[in-house]
Amino acid sequence: MLPRRVAADVLLTMQVARWEHFPHGADIGVRGYGATREQAFEQAAVALSAVITEPAGISAGGMVRISCQAPDDELLLVDWLNALLYEMATRRWLFARYEVHISGEVLTARAWGEALDSARHRPAVEVKGATYTALRVAQEADGSWIAQCVVDV
Amino acid sequence: MDISLFSRHSEYAWEIAPHGAMRVPALIYADETLIRDMDLKVYEQVCNVAMLPGIVQASYAMPDAHWGYGFPIGGVAAFDASDGGVVSAGGVGFDISCGVRCLLTGLQADTVMAVQKRLADSLYRDIPAGLGSSGTIHLDSASMNAMLLGGAQWAVQQGYGCDADLERTEERGRMAGARPGCVSDHAKRRQRDEMGTLGSGNHYLEVQKVVQVFDAGAAQAMGLRENEVVVSIHCGSRGLGHQIGTEFLKRMVIAAAQYGITLPDRELACAPIDSPIGEEYLGAMRAGINCALANRQILTHLVRDVFARVLPEAELTLLYDVSHNTCKVEQHVVAGEPRTLHVHRKGATRAFGPGHADLPAAFRATGQPVLIGGSMGTASYVLAGTSAGEALSWSSACHGAGRAMSRHQAHKTWHGRQVIDELAARGILIRSPSGRGVAEEAPGAYKDVAAVVDAADAAGLARKVARLEPLVCVKG
Fold this sequence. Notes:
The complex is a heterodimer.
Chain A: H1 4-16, E1 18-23, E2 28-34, H2 37-52, E3 62-69, H3 73-91, E4 93-103, E5 106-115, H4 118-121, E6 129-130, E7 136-139, E8 145-152
Helix pairs in contact in A: 2-3
Chain B: E1 7-10, E2 13-16, E3 26-29, H1 32-37, H2 40-49, E4 59-66, E5 73-79, E6 86-88, H3 89-92, E7 99-108, H4 109-113, H5 116-126, H6 141-157, H7 163-167, H8 185-191, E8 204-213, H9 216-222, E9 228-235, H10 238-258, E10 270-272, H11 276-310, E11 317-323, E12 325-334, E13 337-346, E14 349-350, E15 369-372, E16 380-385, H12 389-393, E17 396-397, H13 407-413, H14 416-425, E18 429-431, H15 435-440, H16 449-459, E19 462-475
Parallel strand pairs in B: 3-4, 18-19
Antiparallel strand pairs in B: 1-2, 2-3, 4-5, 5-13, 6-10, 7-9, 7-11, 8-9, 8-19, 12-13, 14-17, 15-16, 16-19
Helix pairs in contact in B: 5-11, 6-11, 8-10, 10-11
């Protein structure tokens, strides 16, 4: 059995960690919630995957390491999502799951996914880039984190 | 929007007087219905652009304006380098030199409809479309740089098309001043396998029928005849343009602060035109323009190959190729004086009037062809640039219908299969790898393109020449 404090953290994580899309004029917004800033970044990345295809349909068999750097949390979120878009475009992969660490201005991450299979994944769109529109990384009053921006498709 | 926000300049011109940090007025061209339906964000964005250093005369928005990134989509603004003017990566956008080209086939609609399904299937099979599709061309470092310098001229030299195509392309197919050395390795890496691919989102390849001619003289000069078939291609600079846009947006956010430029919105990231980063961006952006021109030229070649098999009697000639996400150096007259300006068009088409020296001889009398893409179920239009457009909007016009509904809402409203079936019942064949992508691009998610074009015509930005309706649409 887990120590009580850890169990509470796990419970909080399960309740808080989630993602959603939000509307934007011509495009779409990605939003991640998490118990930590890192988790909100991970969830925002799942929301990015979900713009393209159903995340549950992506196998997490392969792993890619990603790092990026930016002077503040919001620019770092955009850089993180753009780094993923670069990996997706050049490897022709899709990602299902993410693990993010942030230390100062530097983000390091692992992303698990597989090669794109157009017939199986039926990708809806190609995302051109993460933008500074509706860009927000913040800790809410209850201590949870939100990370969001609009992506250009 | 509430029309009391504007002073009505004329029936189709709505002015916002300078206020706050605005250096010049803002002007939106639209009819009353379009202006009432426009998002308030367009008002905010067209005003924000008016705050940028060195902006000349006014910040403009076209009748299809909608909420964009920094600039509204449909935004036009000119800057003077000698007056501290800026160049903005946000003012060009992520898809550098996205544009439309239209090919004449000389075929009657009946001839095409007799093989409609075979043509649709062949185009879908041979034109790489959608996420993850690769072209058959793979560029090494030397050929990448040659492509970025040469644009469509490079593509023709490689055997994709003919010299006559270049005559009918803006900049004769090659944007001068491109600097491949200013394009990052990441941007080049993204493009290595993407030449001759359509992309996704609102990009498409359509076989269309000329259903109505409004201006017989201009239509004749352009080779457009009722009931004949044309092919339109809408796409841009693919991964390379997206990566250049992404990288310079971030660098210009940081640079703007260093140059003491207050950005009303980070998406308006910009730098002085004659600054090192401004010049570097212009060099990279022009390389991006060449990438888009080369890409559309290669796609043209692929389309010709398909027609040669399915309809060998067709001879596909290029009507014209326009770009609608650019920053170009142009001469314009300001208060009676000629000036050299950096004109940003974000989701707006250059629309030179009759007599302009940059037009091919065939269009000197009619004005530049302006190709307006609609949605896949409605219509597209061909317009011609006017003399009046010079004073109204730096010779610029609208570029498409403009979205009326978010992708999110469209996805919840329609199913791809339903959209495809309904269009098939109307004789329009859709081919796409993604049902959801089709739902997000459903015709109902767009504004009424006819209203947009009528407003552009009535405002004097460009005049209507012909209306085109789709027979086959390949969506990425």
